[in-house]
């Protein structure tokens, strides 16, 4: 299992995407405000995602 790094864009649940802001032992803290439809979804700006529950979309040096 590849663990995300700060700055990675990750996808989880049904298509939610965000930028990793902090990496913890079992999870990452993700900023969801990068999504175009963020305001329409009426969700919190940040959330915690377990390492087993996300897919890394890109790395900081690929942006």
TrEMBL record:
InterPro entries per the UniProt record, alphabetical: DUF2187
Protein name (database record): DUF2187 domain-containing protein
Pfam families named among the record's database cross-references: DUF2187 (PF09953)
Organism: Lysinibacillus telephonicus
